[in-house]
Predict the structure of ATP-binding cassette domain-containing protein.
Amino acid sequence: MQAPAITIEGLTKRFGAVTAVDDLSFTVAPGRVTGFLGPNGSGKTTTLRMLLGLVEPSAGRALIGDRPFRRIARPAQHVGAALEASSFHPGRTGLGHLKALAPQVGVPTSRCRDVLDFVGLTPAADRRVGGYSMGMRQRLGLATALLGDPQIILLDEPANGLDPQGIVWLRGLLRSLAHEGRTVLVSSHVLAEVRSTVDDVVVIGSGKLVRASTLTDFEALAERSVEVRTPARASFVALATERGWRLEDTHDGFRIHDADAATVGAAAFAAGLELHQLADVGADLESVFLRLTSSSDAPTSHLAPGGGPSAADPAPAVESREEGR
């Protein structure tokens, strides 16, 4: 098994009487996209800032590979980060911003146009950042993170300010980075934004770990159900009772909870019942997400099999965000 790309071990951060991150432990597998999920104020940004050496932990440690970020030579060539879309000099152009960073990162200025093109900002390269929309600033943040061609990429709420087309583009970008073998840790407070993109999930609430697993294992926590319409309502109710199905009357049909269409269809066929509709209903992951994070005072961490993240056993300057984020 490959060594983790990122290790968070017993990480804690207190701001006075407020504990923003509380004994947090997990690992991130290399070459995968991991969603770092939690409500606003759950400690995601504070965790990422500690990982980047921008905030000193009260306890614990955060490692890139086998060492803290501050001990990595030429760190921007190993780790790229986009934490704050508003931390650009408004008087500089997008291209000028990247050219100012290129010597620090250790790349030729020709790389600047390459990453602007990669994130779709070439038409706005010579415009001042002060005139950029929020979505354009997010793209410039991504370009900044990719400037050093790093293998590990940290993104904090990168979908903020993107329109629907931009979100689709972002998903494709993240998948393409993973296909290149890069490790991506992307935070979000909206599960739907990253569900179609991530391989693994780390969920936190109130600064504590509540779940670390593959997306597949996370999806298995959600109830699946089947929607049925049939003219033989009474007979179908009798079949459901016989089979022990949990049935909900939806007025024009039924919803069978904790079941799948193949099982229900086969039983109805064997009983000679006519069905006008038989459809699986997608897993309600948002309900799982809300349930886990709302009960985070009693966190349940999970060790994921294979390449997923696990609960571990006991860059450029960015503008500060609210404590505990």
The radius of gyration is 23 Å.
